[in-house]
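Q: How would the structure tokens look for this protein?
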Amino acid sequence: MDEFELQAGPDAALEDQLVDHLVAYNKSRSMVVRERFEPANLKSEPVQVFALGPDGAMYGGCAGRVERVWHWLTIDTMWVDETRRGLGLGSALLRSIEDEARRRGCRWSDVTTFDFQAPGFYRKAGYTQYGVKHDYPPGHTNYFFRKDL
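A: Here is the predicted structure in token form.
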């Protein structure tokens, strides 16, 4: 076996090399990964919807990104003002962002949420839990959900 040396610690140039090697490997094994890494397909497309009051105050919002090549919507941020919860605003925001994702060719949606946020809300909206990360953050649970659009 060849000799090697382990080097621990941050090194931006080596990290770039590492990423390049992994991307090259992945592209060699998957046509859809090759397509995703074409220059025109590299950037995700932002998708956002906001609920604003008559005075411009934000009542809620939902922001995510679309990967057109892979047909996925990823919801990154969703929030509804506590005084507006339970009135259908969150459902309207979620439907709106999902509708926009469908218009952009998405077939699936993905979201994560903590136990103190909204796992029940996403289940009620038709999302299926596919994973869980316990003690992330410590003392809490992070849920992973997906939905067929």
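The first strand starts at residue 45 and ends at 52.

Strands lie at 45-52, 58-67, 72-80, 108-114, 128-134, 141-148.

Upvote if useful.
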